[in-house]
């Protein structure tokens, strides 16, 4: 609708150009045939390639425009007599009144430029679907399936869940998975690097997760449950994180920040390790910088992948970043 309105707005300015050209270049259609190609704007040159086309196109286009102006309802322009000569030589006062008439037409009929329901639906390819033993993909549009969240989520206690939010982020929003982990939310990634759509959905169902994606095609499968998938609309990771938090009404506290392993989504050990214990745990696995030995730091280890973490400068910067993104200081 906005695109159509801009068309109407631009056409008013185009009309202004034609009115000016009509006044400066003559009072009749025939006078337009003497125009030189160098005087024409790009796009009109093709129309005036030959003298014969010039006469024909000028006559037709000018005539149609004149008929449209003459078709203006009488109650809009009682004081503006329309004729061939007067249209081509409007005075400044008449031009202003003509602009007013056109703006009134736009106001009166602009709201009738509406999209039909068929225009709102995406075009669906008519190519023959591939034969398969599985179910056939649904032809419903993304707006009808999963575009907006239709909870409750599978972890909801009333649905037999444990009350802990859990997500599965496909490869298109893999960065979002790390951001969710940074704020303490359980966020898994696919088992394989190039999973099939059915594999993603089965993993989400098996682990009682909501599948997060930006792929609209995933929303069209008929074996989807309404609370199994959500299409992320934002492009930037910080915006995606805020969108998921608001959509699923997640409660984030500062104590949750950096409480999960960003590498594998695992949980940390219950008690921190001393420097000596961390050095022993890191042997043959991870290198701890020597500059950390004299800082009396606490080390935390992921129970799944055994990755070691400590509260250094990067940790403090990350905490402050997610405090700001999630607006926890408010």
From TrEMBL:
Q: Which residues form the Mut7-C RNAse domain?
A: 165-321
- Annotated spans, Disordered: 121-157
Q: Which domain of life is it from?
A: Eukaryota
Q: Which InterPro entries match?
A: Exonuclease_MUT-7-like (IPR052408), Mut7-C_RNAse_dom (IPR002782)
Record field: compositional bias (Basic residues): 123-133
Q: What is this protein called?
A: Mut7-C RNAse domain-containing protein
Lineage of the organism: Eukaryota, Viridiplantae, Streptophyta, Embryophyta, Tracheophyta
